[in-house]
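Fold Annotation — chain and its backbone

Fields — amino acid sequence, structure tokens

___
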Amino acid sequence: MNTVFKSHRNNNRASQRSPMHWLPAIVLMTAFLQSAYAITPLPAEQIAVSTAAVDSAARAGATELAPTEMAIARDKLAQAKTAMADGKDQRALMLAEAAQVDALLAEAKARNIRAGKAATELRESNRVLRQEIERGAK
């Protein structure tokens, strides 16, 4: 009985050293690395998204209403393109993401300023209307 146990234990050691034993772990690790790579956007894709954000902010009037934020967004976008051309993908990705955030900020600021102006005009219209109503009541 003792010899059966020893041979079984020796078979386990042999199977642990077998390259086939590591195959599932290697396949799992490869799949994990591929999925992690797929989650990280490529700099070119992020630059395209950031360019669209800068264009959207410009259409919203951010060039005139939020010039500082737009200048920062455009500068970071240009830096991202340069970094990508130099093969510095991580830096390009970081700068492109920052450019997108700055462009969104510029667009939000421009829309906020426009909304504030519209509210001011509406209040003024209401004031004038009230004055006319009061004159008509006299």
